[in-house]
Write a structure and sequence with these properties.
The complex is a heteropentamer of chains A (376), B (334), C (325), D (364) and E (528).
Chain A: E1 15-30, E2 36-52, E3 56-60, H1 67-74, E4 82-87, E5 90-91, H2 97-103, E6 107-110, H3 124-134, H4 141-155, H5 171-183, E7 189-193, H6 201-218, E8 221-225, H7 229-235, E9 238-243, E10 246-252, H8 253-258, H9 263-271, H10 277-282, E11 324-326, E12 329-331, H11 336-341
Chain C: H1 3-21, H2 32-42, H3 44-66, H4 75-78, H5 107-146, H6 148-167, H7 170-181, H8 185-195, H9 197-212, H10 215-223, H11 227-263, H12 276-282, H13 292-319
Chain E: E1 12-17, H1 32-41, E2 46-48, E3 55-57, E4 60-65, E5 71-76, H2 90-101, H3 114-120, E6 136-143, E7 146-151, H4 172-177, H5 194-198, E8 206-212, E9 217-222, E10 236-241, H6 245-254, E11 259-261, H7 265-273, E12 277-280, E13 285-291, H8 302-311, H9 314-321, E14 327-328, H10 351-360, E15 367-374, H11 384-397, E16 401-408, H12 409-418, E17 425-431, H13 437-445, H14 457-467, H15 472-489, E18 492-497, E19 501-504, E20 508-509, E21 525-526
Parallel strand pairs in E: 1-10, 15-16, 15-17
Antiparallel strand pairs in E: 2-3, 4-5, 5-7, 6-7, 8-9, 9-10, 11-19, 12-19, 13-17, 13-18, 14-18, 20-21
Helix pairs in contact in E: 8-10, 13-15, 14-15
Classes of the chains: A alpha/beta (376), B mainly alpha (334), C mainly alpha (325), D alpha/beta (364), E alpha+beta (528).
The structure holds adenosine-5'-triphosphate (2 copies) and magnesium ion (MG) (2 copies).
Amino acid sequence: MTDGNVSVPSERGENLVEVRDLKVHFPISRGVIFDRVVGHVKAVDGVDLSIPRGKTYGLVGESGCGKSTLGRALLQLTPPTSGQVNFDGVELTTLPPNKMRSMRRRMQMIFQDPMSSLDPRQNVESILVEGLQAHGIGADRTARREIITKTLDAVGLPKWALSRYPHEFSGGQRQRIGIARALVLGPDLIVADEPVSALDVSIQAQVVNLLDELQTELGLTYLVIAHDLAVVRHISDTIGVMYLGALVEEAPGDRLYREPLHPYTRALMSAVPVPDPEVEDRRERILLAGDLPSPANPPTGCRFHTRCPWAQPTRCAEERPVLRQIGDSRVACHWAEPIASGELRPHKVSAQIVRPEDEGDTPGMVSAPSEPGSFV
Amino acid sequence: MIRFIVRRLLQLIPALFGLSILLFIWLHRLPGGPETAILGERGTPEMRAAIRHNLGLDEPILVQYGRFMRRMIRLDLGSSIATKREVTTEFLQRFPGTVELAVTALIIAIAVGIPLGYLAARRRGKLLDHVSVAGSLIGVCIPVFFLAYVLKAIFAENLHLFPSSGRQDPTIEATRITNFFVLDGLMTREWDAAADAIWHLVLPGLALASIPLAIIVRITRASVLEVLGEDFVRTAEAKGLTERVVRQRHVLRNAMLPVATTIGLLTGGLLSGAVLTETVFAFSGIGAFIADSISQRDYPVLMGFIMIIAVLFVLVNLIVDLSYSLIDPRVRVR
Amino acid sequence: MTITERARKKAEKLDRLGELSAVRDEERGVSLWQEAFRRLRRNPAAIVGTVVLGLFVLVAIVGPIFVPYGPTDTIGIREGLVKSGQGIIPGSSADHWLGFDHQGRDEFSRLIVGARQTLLVGVVSTLIGLAIGALVGGIAGAAAGLGGRWGRWLDTGLMRIVDMLLALPSLLLAVSIAALLGASLTTVMIAVGVVSVPVFARLLRGSMIAQSNTDYVLAATSLGVRRSKIALSHVLPNSLAPVIVQATLTLATAIIEAAALSFLGLGNPDSAVPEWGVMLADAQPYLGIRPALAIYPAVAIIITALGFTLLGEAMREALDPKLRK
Amino acid sequence: MALLDVEDLSVTFRQRGKRTVRAVDGVSFSVDTGEVVGLVGESGCGKSVTSLALMGLLPRQPGISVGGKADFDGTDLLRVDRRAMRDIRGRDVAMIFQDPLSSLNPVIPIGRQVTEVLSRHRGLSGDAARKEAAALLERVGIPDPTRRLKEYPHQLSGGMRQRALIAIAVACQPRLLIADEPTTALDVTIQAQILELLKDLVRDSGTALVMITHDLGVVAGMCDTVNVLYAGRVVETARRRPLFAEPRHPYTVGLLGSIPRLDAGRGDKLSPIPGSVRDVLPWADGCAFAPRCDRQVEACVGEPPQLVLTHTDRTYRCVNPVPPIGSPAAAAEPAAAAEPAAEAGPVTEEKPSTVPAPREEESA
Amino acid sequence: DRGESGASQKDTLVFGVAGDPKVLDPSLASDGESLRVARQVFETLVRPEEGGTKITPGLAESWTPDSTGTVWTFKLRSGVKFHDGTDFNAEAVCVNFNRWYNATGLMQSPDVTPYWQDVMGGFAKNERDDLPESLFKSCTAKDATTVDLAFTRVSSKVPAALMLPSFSIHSPKALEEYKASAIGGSADNVQYPSYAMEHPTGTGPFKFKSWDVANKTLTLERNEDYSGTQKAKLKTLIFKTISDENARKQALRSGDIQGYDLVGPADVEPLKNEGFNMLTRPAFNILYLAINQKGNPKLADIKVRQAIAYALNRQALVDSKLPPGAKVATQFMPDTVEGWNPTVTTYDYNVDKAKQLLAEAGATNLTLRFHYPTEVTRPYMPNPKDIFELLSTDLQAVGIKVQGIPLKWTPDYLNATSSGSDHDLHFLGWTGDYGDAYNFIGTMFDRQKPEWGFNNPALFALFKQADSTADSAARFELYKQLNAEVMKFLPGVPISHSPPAIVFGKDVTGVKASPLTDERFATAEFKS
Ligand SMILES: Nc1ncnc2c1ncn2[C@@H]1O[C@H](COP(=O)(O)OP(=O)(O)OP(=O)(O)O)[C@@H](O)[C@H]1O
Ligand SMILES: Nc1ncnc2c1ncn2[C@@H]1O[C@H](COP(=O)(O)OP(=O)(O)OP(=O)(O)O)[C@@H](O)[C@H]1O
Ligand SMILES: [Mg+2]
Ligand SMILES: [Mg+2]
């Protein structure tokens, strides 16, 4: 265990969720006759985090750094390769499937794309009833109806929405349906994977406010995943910054903004545009070179050293830094203190070319055209 | 690439093994046997029993299969019960006809279908579009054997433009090398033989092409329409490229991928179509021969031919898959 | 413009705004199927196809009641009018609108009665193909999409078998099925149906695998819904659209394929119930003396197949998710 | 005289069985040489259609009609014939699109896609073209450019693809560059790189840039002049600083209030605009924003609001604008707003968030 | 325009046939197409008269039996040469007969030497238990032109059966050279020797030239050294396989071929009217409805069988479905064969009588399984399905329920009708091989057969007696008696004799249609 392990887990501790050394590796397999595993996409590669009850943990990072995979692994939707996930004192990774299924009532998920996460052939009522039925909540139709109506109210949808289908709603309303689906089971934890990034600016704000209100009213615990630092900053108590499958920094929101310790966090902060010309004009940008390396073939040592303007000839390329506690923050950088003090100055980094992993279609996926033609 | 080919070929072995077992059981479960076909009306039960015994058909099926397998491993497919010729000989004599016919049909379908589909897409909603879509719909719905009869009635019987039967005028003395008549004619410089063989291909080719043509027209049209709406076409337009360049370099090539898939899948159907087309045009090929072999329970021919066809089918699809990677660099064969 | 007029106009516009934001409480939601149906109703091809098929089904259902002569009544031979062996088959007359067939039966009556059988062949064989194909494809798709390692094995096994079916030329498959079962109507339906199994199986499987990777399946999993229920109530219904389209198109093909089997002599030989494919095949020897005997059923087949195809294509368009908002 | 003068541009989509959509409904703005002009607005407000109309890239279909005028250095881009437009496109006016992956032809190497512009407009071919292409890639910051020329789009990462797309656009040193949400598909760190690159290009070459985005943050860092669009019309135009400092149109105010800011604290409430962009009133019937507007008065409905030009070089389209900060009206504002709202009667009683069913899908 | 071939080509005839020949050695053949080729390339000792069935000289000028009727002396034509230049003589005849007689191994398989086994029964050394003693005993070459064939007993088959092309005389040299008797391969992998596939060598007016399987054509050319009465007029004769009946017709019309066999009855009149040279063969066949007395016990009742016979409107069937010239059959053989009896019991169409007989037999509620073939046309039944439909309509009219069972000709139909007992009714026919009544009625009724399911020892004995009567006049009388007996016993209902047609191009003459399909293309020529 690293020295980042600060909070002592207790039976009904203050932390609702404890994640220890979680890894999710997706095998890459190919072979001549039988597929052999030739490598792994290390989507999540050793993450520790704890989420206190009633608080919001925000997770940010570039696309492909493993945020969604972490969220899903936490909910056991993707089986973790190793590590532990402790939810309210119950170890989830070893829970038998049946128990896990009933456990799901207490932890729910909100998805990025409100359209694709709703079954287009279900009307809102059956979308909401499905979870209730799965867990046997509500004695009969009327009882369930009541629960549903209350939830609809909570997310600000009218009652007539019940008989409607997802495609009849606007994006914001759809996202409200998604939230209602999560809420209807009365969960303790909600994992929101990019809950607003598919929405228009004005709608985004409505949903952010809604999430905020619901937390206050229902005492929910959130894990909010987003690539938009500003959104995360707005709703999170603690923010974790991910890079290539691992946390590089974790700190309370204000502190992270005021005193980013990890070079990547700094770069990220400086890249987020602020809708204020005054701020924009004054800002000093730390531009990162190149793109995120492939998680199938991550750099050795510190994963960030290939793009880091503060990278040093020693340690960075060989030794993988662990999360260390510095003040309120936990940071995974060998040189965090000298960088913070200004002792180390950034230097120029040249971009390296990065290959996107497996975007091509394989011929096996070419689907048969469903053409008629009897040939006779 | 080579790995991919090797992998696909190796995968073929268990598949063929499975296919041979299924096929063997299936064929031998068909009621009756070759002896009835051989003897016709004149057969007596004793004579039938004698033939069955001679052919080893009275042995347990496992023993028979074992014998078949032992021969297979030596790549010997045995000989036809009906014609008493080696199965491979039969295949080499009849398959070229089917290939010539299928290739002709494909050439007609591609040469007419792709431009027509493309034009229909460009003129979407105009007369040409409607005509070609309606034509292709009818093309799919018309029974081939009926179409064949009509074609012959018009072009052979009345106009005497094309011959109505066979692969080549038998009065032409042609040398046979590969049994691909056109190819043979070209190889031996017997131009009249080659020309006559092509002449004989026109009507059956047209009949067999009707469905692939219809399908290709529609796939091309749909695919071109889709590509026309793609972002990169807009980019190409934004570069101010001439219309010809946009069309050839950007639209057509991208639209070809689904068309290539379709062409690969059409090969299986062409074989089916060939059964009827060959019968109606008295065209020597494997289609009608296999159909006859089924009714004659010519087990060695059926086993051999279908196994060879299965291998060829896989090979054709392998080639199609490889051709994707030529058309589309995103497709990595592995 | 007078002031009152302006005021009235303004009031109208205000009403409009009110209308815009009014709650239409009483209305029920429109499901995707209803949406597709609406789109379908506006498509001229669909209308033509439906009218053709409507007529066809109508004739199939009530036609046999109204035909002037029994479909197996060999009047022409009884009355000595038909001598097909000597090349004499009279054409249309006042009593027999389309003349006689080669067995001296009233061609018009047979054509009408034949519609029912043709419909039956088309529908039953498509249903056979659909049922088996959907079962195989559905199991494979569910196994591959949701079943984990075991599921992948099951899927691979099933699909290898389907691939083998696909490698055999369909007509030869049909011929050998007919050889196993003997020539009969059932044979034709089974043979034609089995031939379309691989298409349905692959289509449904592909579509189910695609659906299995969607977020709403993940959402259902995270709700704690059982996998079997997810497969049945989410994945399957959402994968059906292409299968339904294919089924409509297969109906057309099935009718043509049945005719081809008849042509090869494997069709339903029982002429007590006339069928267009069989009629077309039976007319072959008489093409020289009365081509109309082939043309009537051929045209009937073409029109019907066209009707199914038009409807199928229109449905494909209507159900296309790309066109959905 | 500005480089580009768009006047009263309108684009109408008429489709059988669907309601006629006026996607762009009288947009006017102008771009000076070397200026960066932003077009901001939410999804569906007509930003892309505007840019496509200017480029002459709207699909050639019956039912799509374009009106108005777009004067580019003396030629009206909307009236010029197709062949002449092909000469202008890529040479004088170039465009960058949102999704770099789908905007590059997947089956043609990057190099070819760059050289084909060079040969079309600059007559370069063969080695000369390849050299120039490599130089262009170098210029947009693609490492090892000669090797990249042979690669296909899918072999590059998202950022590199967008750079390649920019290289294609600037290949002929166009006088006007239209960038339609060039960074929306990219990560923030990459976005920062690309924006920096665009700024450099504009600065170095004096190219005018029309920057289309929905991100006010991007606008704040880049643009000289900003046009805020709503439902196909420009609702407010101003220089960058005044706009952010003193937004006048309620929509602009709402937008700014909706954006979570990195420099704000945890839990600061956002003040979103209620409803969604689908709740629009046709411009002909009044102010399209009225159904969502909290400053709605009776005058909003009936006549479409006129553009108001203030002496501070700002225009807005509102009958009841937000008063400038520190103005006397600002103090009296709550009352002023409340009073007409009461008169508006039924309009304000409806909660706009309850507006049902999409309108676009209804048949005419 | 390929419709009219140029003047130089007028000596080439392309003739359309329905199937590929199977083998070129007629000893091994039983299919019509192989035999058609053999008839042009080979000659037999005796042969049918042109256009008829009577025995006329072939390679033998005369033939006489000895007093026992078991040894026949053949006087051979002299100066005859085989295609390979060797001489035809008595020695060659004996080589041929001994080749057949001494066959071993696979040569004894019933599918390899079908006609030998049909006519002669067995071999020198029978390798199968079910083979009877051989009828043939020995061959002695007395001198170059005289040969004695000895038989083990008197038989109606001698010498008529020697007309069969299967008894064609081959060149001994070629037989030796191309290993004609070496049928190779293993049990399930029979392969014919090259003689049978590529080198048939006879004495006929045409020589074999080539067999192009890939083009489905077989080419013969004129034997310039032919020693017979008349050299072939055609230089080249090509048989082209076109299996589909319509396709053959269209090929003739479009000029691809100048004649074809197996003309559909419906096409006879139209083609004739178009000016094609339509030849009608005398009907030398019989189509009959077989009644299986084992199938349904009621069918063992003669009254039921008579009722069935009365129920059938055979005249209507012949009128409407068969080509012009077809006749209703009164017995199981055509009237052109000696032994035909004009006074047999006849059963004319009579519905009332049929109903009455059924009532008498207590079989008013009879359901019969009626098998009929599909996918076949035979000279005696051009359209079996149509025939079935008419027959079953007739039967239903008298109250017999019919359960139609369609079966594919091979293997299902032949299997079902000739071995099992699942069938009650079926129809089948026979085309005579040579002009002897025994070849018709004897093949059908001379022993117990599953096809009929009856056992009538008296009848069988009478057949035996007829077969072994050496005196032909006496034999013919016995045949007449047999016909009368059979029609009284009524094992089945003879239906019709149907004249098959063969058609030639408008300008082709010289061919005479033969009831035995023994058309001689040597006499064919294009009229200018
Ligand atoms: N099922 C899977 N099989 C193989 N690789 C996967 C799978 N799911 C995700 N990955 C890979 O894991 C890596 C992390 O993916 P993930 O979706 O967690 O990233 P993310 O941070 O959520 O990105 P985004 O912001 O784009 O949603 C990516 O490289 C992705 O390609
Ligand atoms: N081809 C078309 N047919 C019909 N309507 C169209 C078409 N293209 C665009 N529209 C309509 O025009 C309006 C404006 O679209 P546009 O693409 O310009 O929006 P945008 O501002 O670029 O939004 P986004 O931020 O989503 O890109 C939309 O309401 C859209 O529905
Ligand atoms: Mg994600
Ligand atoms: Mg846009």
